[in-house]
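TODO from last week: model AEC family transporter.
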Amino acid sequence: MNVWEIIVMTFTDMGFLSAIASTILIILLGFFCRKRGIFNENVGKILSKIVLTVALPALAFTAFMTDIDSEQLAQGINVLIWGILMYIVLMFAMKPLYLKYKGDEKTTLEVLSIFGSTTFFGIPIVSAILGPVGVIYANIFNIGYRIFLYSYAYIRMSGLKMELKNLKSMFLNPIVIATFLGLAIWLFQEFLPQVTVAATETEAAREVAILRIDQTLPWLYAPMEYLSKLASPLAWLAIGATLAEINIGQAAKSTSSWYYAGVKTIIVPAINLAVFFLTTATGILVFDIDAVTTMIVMMATPAATVAVAYAINFEREAILASNASLLSTLAAVILIPTWLVILNIIGNLGIF
């Protein structure tokens, strides 16, 4: 199969196109509803809170309710390793990109380039494209993200030492708790007490870990699964409603913000993709296409809201940070689908 046939196959894959179209159209729906007054000014914040405290924790936990697979486990370990190393790499890789900037402007742009909105923006897209396996990789990847977001980013933006409240934010929010709980069950399910689940029309009777609630407590798993399916559409509606609140024309005048948006949504994921080619070719860290797709999407996300909040709270170019967040969000809406097309072509070429 030649490259052109693979491109045609990519653009005629209805499942793939449907996932991309769903992302874009539901974001546009949120934008339209806010502009027309169907949503009030508080809807974006309310939907965001529901996603972050209810839907995404449910999604993080239920994704791990699956049989452990040796290949997925190996990929998960590699994703965890790169999810930590990558932030160290970016701390140095961003410096030459912002050499012409000084002081707070330089600090803010570097930090915003390193940390994207992986949880709120990235995971819903990964879930729509790859399903549970993507969610597993995304949440494992986010372990390193949260460590550095609440330590390195905080210290650089505040100029202060690490505080206890950031440790609490790192480990005691619902998504982190759900991730570590689900991850522990997934990893150690063979060593947990086993129970026999009755045969169904599609599966024979078998033994599973008692904490595999998808099998042992389906009545409890069902509402969590319903909640997990709300994560993507509610997040996209919230993104659209939030975009409608911001003065795009004023933000568009900032050349620094446009430059940042290009770095965040093009250069940062491109750096990661280049490293994936290198590590896979040399056998240092071997990634499959699902892991690569997950991590590229996570790295192409717009500025992390926590990092922007740091800029505002510590008065480090707050307006620049807000404008950069807006323009990188607009860029991500266009470029993440573009990256997905490129990655789908790469996957069909068999490179990963």
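Done. The first strand starts at residue 194 and ends at 197.
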